[in-house]
Amino acid sequence: MVVKRYLEPILEPVFHMDSYGYRPGKSAHDALAVARRRCWSHDWVLDLDIKSFFDEIDWSLLMKAVRRHTDCKWVLLYLQRWLEAPASMPDGSLVKRTRGTPQGLSSARC
């Protein structure tokens, strides 16, 4: 939460206005309302899904992007440690990861 409070005011202005996931003051209901409104004003839809997107994020590229917005050492240290933390499996075993961001059990494939 401390890292979120530090980074959010810095990164929030950079996000696209149509980005709704985990954004302050925006919800899934807001996204649905915009989608519904646009369905009545446009006669086309673009739908895409990048398979395993969060499981494949390159850590060095992610950290490079974060460093463009902050050089705060403790924030960078926490982010690096979170990325490198092993995935804890239901049986209690730990699985080493080399890429991707923690997203629940799906990150075990990394």
UniProtKB/TrEMBL annotation:
Residues 100-110 have a biased composition (Polar residues). Residues 3-107 form the Reverse transcriptase domain. GO terms for molecular function: RNA-directed DNA polymerase activity. Residues 90-110 are annotated as: Disordered. It comes from the Bacteria. It holds the Pfam family RVT_1. Keywords: Nucleotidyltransferase, RNA-directed DNA polymerase, Transferase. InterPro entries: DNA/RNA_pol_sf (IPR043502), GrpII_Intron_Splice-Mob/Def (IPR051083), RT_dom (IPR000477). Belongs to the bacterial reverse transcriptase family. This is Reverse transcriptase (RNA-dependent DNA polymerase).
